[in-house]
Amino acid sequence: MTDSPYQYFDVQVLRAEHLTPAMIRVAFGGPDLRRMASGGRDQRIKIFLPHPGQDAPVMPATDTGDASDWYAAWCALDPSVRGIMRTYTTRELRRDP
């Protein structure tokens, strides 16, 4: 595990529930989440989605040793192929399934 607070996690959507027309609650799961640390309530996270026809979002390499500049590396990728970024607020981090 790296000392950087910025890490990528490969997750799957377990559940999605519309709370209002403009708000959705999404439950994610997967083995990678064991590495995630909680910053407490109202922790913001970035979700990267693939473009249509992609199996996974295209993301910058994370093996460079400096993950703190992930945003510049993401911006440098071609916008037509790089992962689509959205910001969500973490309600809770649970270790149980």
Description:
The chain is mostly beta strands and 97 residues long. The protein has one domain. The strands form two sheets. Strands 1-2 form a two-stranded antiparallel sheet. A hairpin with a 2-residue loop joins strand 1 and strand 2. The two termini are 22 Å apart.
Please give the structural blueprint.
Blueprint lengths: L11 E9 L2 E7 L13 E7 L20 H7 L7 E7 L7
Antiparallel strand pairs: 1-2, 3-4
In sequence order, what are the helices and strands, one letter per element?
EEEHE
Task: Evaluate the radius of gyration.
Answer: 14 Å
- Mean pLDDT, to the nearest integer, reads 84
Beta-strand share of residues:
25-35%
State the end-to-end distance: 22 Å
Structure characteristics:
mainly beta; 97 residues; single chain; 4 strands
In short:
By secondary structure, the protein is mainly beta.
